[in-house]
């Protein structure tokens, strides 16, 4: 995969998309799927795509490659960008963010210049969410930008309206999780407790403040230059919200962007064929729809107390379970008391990492206990697997609302006064979803129906492909446009 990319001269009406993603699993995989789909639309070679990720992530993806190389998987190319630190760490403060932004902008600018020198000029830059150095580079090189919104349309609407007149009412009621706010396009008022965590965080948390500043700049940019916005959702899933947001933004619904269970995926964590063979054979040994799959994503960390409650609840419910628990997934420093071997039982299997989409697609999986990040949510939808949500932060609080209240494909596990989902509560939720009650059967039927709709959208000639073609055509029509210098200088970059 780490072969040097061959130099290709540009073709008439050809496109080269540079897709820039944050260096975390939840950005890289949907970015890769989008890059692949864009390239495959140009069956005559007229469309090519390059996925750029931070150096630290590139090294984990291609351990045998040097960061001076451009790697390829035979469909798209990959190129690393540097933030000047290149250790995968989060920024510390505003000064650190500014330094890394300048370094990232310079690195991406050099990448764009190199492609131009090779005869492969970048004709559009796509960035996942709030990768703001892309805006700097687009202005410098006069290249069109598209925003890849890798969360649901509902989150786009919430963030958009927060910065367009609703911030005061949201922040003034931030300490009341039951207070309801009416937002345009939402089918019913949304409780404050279901808003993304950074919008209702009044603690002065540095990360929340930084995210709000990033989104504010992003929407200032969108308001003035109207870039295209690609949404990783599909029309039938969020019809009213999508219809409303299209009044304000140039939106293309291109989801579900999850690839297929047979496609190779990017894994930033240890994942080998020996482990995969072991857990896939274990799944195969169980009856259809009998296994509880538990995973809280690549970022979430849980306390030892929470993990103990989860394991206790899984054993209490008496159903076979596959639990993903990384050794670095505990908040506690002392992890020696909680090794993987100690959690194994006759009922369950515990692994550090797995190919989630392949697991969810397996016929024996009947329930998904999840943190409800959008990638996990949309993978559950495509796989037709009911969800028990244990949200923690960011968009997860809104996603579980959609899962439970809007789509009826799962339920939320309620936390106690200490913020812990107890084993008793988890066992109750599992039985409610996997049992034989009318509610359980309704959840499973709705999950199955939504799976069929999602797969129709993702199939060849489905709505995702049609909308992607429409997007490319708008870039072809408008690809020669130039930013008005007065407007671009007025944006705080």
UniProtKB/TrEMBL annotation:
**InterPro entries in the record:** UDP_glucos_trans, UDP_glycos_trans_CS
Entry keyword annotation includes Glycosyltransferase: yes
Per UniProt, what is one GO molecular function of this protein?
glycosyltransferase activity
The record's PANTHER family line, in alphabetical order, gives:
GLUCOSYL/GLUCURONOSYL TRANSFERASES, GLYCOSYLTRANSFERASE
Tell me the protein's name: Glycosyltransferase
| Key words of the record | Glycosyltransferase, Transferase
Hey, which family's this protein in? Belongs to the UDP-glycosyltransferase family.
**Pfam entry (one):** UDPGT
Q: What class of enzyme is it?
A: transferase
CDD domains reported for this sequence: GT1_Gtf-like
Please indicate which superkingdom the organism of origin belongs to. Answer: Eukaryota
The species this protein was found in: Urochloa decumbens
Q: What is its EC number?
A: 2.4.1.-
């Amino acid at each position: 995969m780490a072969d040097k990319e061959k130099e290709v001269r540009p073709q008439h009406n050809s496109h080269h998309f540079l897709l820039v993603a944050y260096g975390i699993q939840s950005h890289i995989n949907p970015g890769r799927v989008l890059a692949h789909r864009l390239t495959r639309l140009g069956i005559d070679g007229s469309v090519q795509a390059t996925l750029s990720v931070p150096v630290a992530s590139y090294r984990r993806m291609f351990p045998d490659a040097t960061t001076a190389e451009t790697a390829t998987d035979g469909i798209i190319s990959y190129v690393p960008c540097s933030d000047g630190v290149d250790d995968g760490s989060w920024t510390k403060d505003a000064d650190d963010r500014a330094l890394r932004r300048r370094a990232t902008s310079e690195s991406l600018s050099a990448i764009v210049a190199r492609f131009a020198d090779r005869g492969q000029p970048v004709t559009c830059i796509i960035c996942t969410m709030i990768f703001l150095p892309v805006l700097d580079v687009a202005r410098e090189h006069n290249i069109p930008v598209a925003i890849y919104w890798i969360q649901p349309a509902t989150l786009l609407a919430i963030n958009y309206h927060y910065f367009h007149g609703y911030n005061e009412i949201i922040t003034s009621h931030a300490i009341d999780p039951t207070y309801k706010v009416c937002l345009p396009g939402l089918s019913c008022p949304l409780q404050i407790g279901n808003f993304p965590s950074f919008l209702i965080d009044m603690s002065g948390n540095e990360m929340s403040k930084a995210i709000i500043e990033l989104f504010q700049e992003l929407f200032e940019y969108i308001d003035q230059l109207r870039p295209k916005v690609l949404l990783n959702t599909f029309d039938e899933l969020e019809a009213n919200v999508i219809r409303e947001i299209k009044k304000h933004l140039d939106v293309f619904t291109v989801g579900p962007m999850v690839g297929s269970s047979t496609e190779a995926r990017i894994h930033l964590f240890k994942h080998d064929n020996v482990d995969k063979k072991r857990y896939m054979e274990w799944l195969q040994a169980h009856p259809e729809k009998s296994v509880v799959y538990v995973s809280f994503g690549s970022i979430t960390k849980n306390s030892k107390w929470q993990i103990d409650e989860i394991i206790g609840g899984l054993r209490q419910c008496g159903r076979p379970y596959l639990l993903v628990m990384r050794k670095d997934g505990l908040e506690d420093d002392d992890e020696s008391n909680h090794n993987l071997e100690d959690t194994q039982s006759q009922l369950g299997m515990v692994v550090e990492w797995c190919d989630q989409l392949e697991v969810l697609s397996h016929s024996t999986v009947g329930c998904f206990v999840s943190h409800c990040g959008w990638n996990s949510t949309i993978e559950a939808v495509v796989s037709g697997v009911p969800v028990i949500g244990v949200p923690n932060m960011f968009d997860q609080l809104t996603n579980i609302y959609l899962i439970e209240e809007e789509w009826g494909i799962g339920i939320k596990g309620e936390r106690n006064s200490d913020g812990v989902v107890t084993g008793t509560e988890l066992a109750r939720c599992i039985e409610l979803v996997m049992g034989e009650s009318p509610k359980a059967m309704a959840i499973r039927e709705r999950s199955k129906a939504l799976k069929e709709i999602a797969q129709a959208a993702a199939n060849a000639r489905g709505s995702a492909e049609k909308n992607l073609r429409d997007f490319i055509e708008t870039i072809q029509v408008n690809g020669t446009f130039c930013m008005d210098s007065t407007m671009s200088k007025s944006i705080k970059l």
